[in-house]
Amino acid sequence: MGQLFELIADHALEKLDDYYDECHVCDQTAVDLYRYQGKLHLENGEIDDDIYAVCTDCLLTKKLTHSCDFDYIRTITNYLATSSLSIEEQESMRQILIEKYQKTPDVPLFMQYVDRPLCCNDITMFTGHPTDKAELYRMTENVIYWEKQIKEKSGGYNFRESGNPESFREVASFQCRHCGRNYFTFQFT
Ligand SMILES: [Zn+2]
Ligand SMILES: [Zn+2]
Q1: Could you name the domain of life of the organism this protein comes from (predicted)?
Q2: Is 26 in the same domain as 64?
């Protein structure tokens, strides 16, 4: 489990570069910043929707929601509906998982839509992108393919045959912290 963010392994966590120098929530400088495209919900009910870079403290303590979060919330809901949980349990688990998602920065940056695989009634942890061919094969062969749900791999995801993706960052690798199963997503640009 990531030390800073539960859903991101520490070695896979990416800070924003120096182009961003202050947290868009607390305006602090000299803090590590992470990509988070979303909205800040203020106590007076106002919403600041011009959020892009957020520090760890604000991510964990402020009420932030991702832009277009409904898309992934639907994926969570659909996943839980296939679980053996009762309707009441599904609803409470749904709130817990949405909360975890909202407190997680946009790492990895999904090219098309947010799609963190779900397993064991939880959201899996991002463990990185491949950096070379050997890792690409290791991260995608004998590994579960996820596309809003567990999906059969089509031929295009056999990278030995179809060739490398345009960028290794189109492939993202995840691990369930409960059962240890590995998943990957592939979203091309
Ligand atoms: Zn901050
Ligand atoms: Zn699992």
Answers
A1: Bacteria
A2: yes
| 19: CB partners within 8 A, 6+ apart | none
pLDDT (tens, 9 = 90+) of the chain, 189 residues, equals: 678 999 999 999 999 988 899 999 999 999 999 999 999 999 999 999 999 999 999 999 999 999 999 999 999 999 999 999 999 999 999 999 999 999 999 999 999 999 999 999 999 999 999 999 999 999 999 899 999 999 987 766 789 988 889 999 999 999 999 999 999 999 988
- The length of the chain in residues reads 189
The last residue of one of the domains, among 81, 107, 133, is 107
The residues whose Cβ lies within 5 A of ligand 2, an ion, are: 119-120, 176, 178-179, 181
Domain-embedded: residue 116: no
Residue 103 CA, ligand 1 centroid: distance in Å: 13
